[in-house]
Task: inverse folding
């Protein structure tokens, strides 16, 4: 009977776990709808801003800007900076693992890079690996806002403007349909040859008038561009996190159903065997008494 009791307790424990995973699935699905709505509103603005930056780079040929690098330009002094966007907690499948793997591949090429990590999961991971990260860069990955992205962009742009950083990259997760993939993108500097060759189907003959000058206008637009890119990456990563959590919790719920079904079959088999054994013992005792 002790085996039957253990199986019954096991079934109850799995049922409790199933309730939790199912609840987390429902919560993630509700949050995902809102996050996707924010992402759909963000992408058109960011795409339009990126198009304007390309048009400006094509129109401005001789402007000297620290945010723009020509193929013949000298390398700026300073270290590489890497922004890594992870989640604040796990239970999201391979979401955190993939973006951290992308970041580690970058750090192998640039071991002295300065690391800026968003999300508690990533910060704890790199601390366990004894990887030095920026201690004053404590930003949450939950519910991204444009205000937070402006603070982050202002932080890294200050280091770039002062020469502490020569290049800024960001590692985040990107969602295309149901597929989630990690991406590595260079934020600064922008390479003129890459930008201009991608600027297709645009009116490049349009004349621009810059007040007070082209460098000032370009610096202002770049700040909005970087802030918008970081916000888009934050929202995109948050959608990926919720999507992967939904998938993980749905898989966990399905596994719980399978385990409960297997344990129920085993419970019924052992219970029936115990009942049969008791009936057999009673019948044997009754026959023995009758013979006596």
Result:
């Amino acid at each position: 009977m002790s085996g039957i009791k253990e199986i019954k307790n096991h079934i109850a424990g799995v049922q409790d776990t199933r309730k939790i995973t199912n609840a987390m699935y429902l919560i993630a699905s509700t949050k995902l709808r809102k996050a996707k709505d924010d992402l759909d509103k963000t992408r058109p603005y960011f795409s339009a801003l990126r198009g304007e930056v390309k048009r400006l780079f094509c129109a401005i040929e001789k402007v000297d800007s620290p945010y723009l690098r020509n193929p013949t330009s000298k390398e700026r002094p300073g270290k590489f900076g890497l922004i890594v966007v992870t989640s604040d907690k796990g239970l999201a499948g391979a979401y955190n693992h993939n973006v951290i793997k992308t970041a580690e591949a970058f750090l192998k090429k640039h071991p002295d890079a300065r690391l800026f990590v968003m999300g508690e999961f990533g910060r704890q991971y790199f601390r366990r690996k004894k990887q030095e990260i920026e201690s004053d860069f404590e930003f949450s990955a939950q519910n991204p806002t444009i205000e937070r992205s402006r603070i982050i962009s202002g932080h890294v742009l200050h280091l770039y403007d002062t020469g502490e950083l020569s290049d800024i990259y960001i590692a985040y997760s990107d969602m295309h349909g149901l597929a989630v993939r990690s991406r590595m993108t260079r934020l600064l500097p922008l390479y003129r040859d890459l930008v201009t060759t991608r600027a297709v189907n645009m009116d490049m003959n349009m004349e621009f008038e810059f007040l007070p000058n082209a460098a000032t206008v370009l610096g202002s637009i770049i700040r909005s561009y970087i802030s918008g890119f970081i916000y888009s990456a934050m929202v995109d990563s948050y959608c990926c996190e919720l999507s992967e959590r939904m998938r993980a919790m749905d898989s966990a719920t399905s596994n719980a159903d399978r385990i409960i079904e297997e344990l129920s079959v085993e419970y019924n088999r052992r219970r029936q065997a115990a009942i049969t054994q008791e009936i057999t013992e009673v019948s044997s005792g009754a026959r023995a008494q009758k013979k006596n």
Observations:
- Helices lie at 2-59, 95-109, 120-128, 146-161, 192-198, 214-291.
- DSSP finds six helices and six strands in the chain.
- The longest strand covers residues 165-176.
- The beta strands are 68-69, 79-85, 114-118, 165-176, 179-188, 190-191.
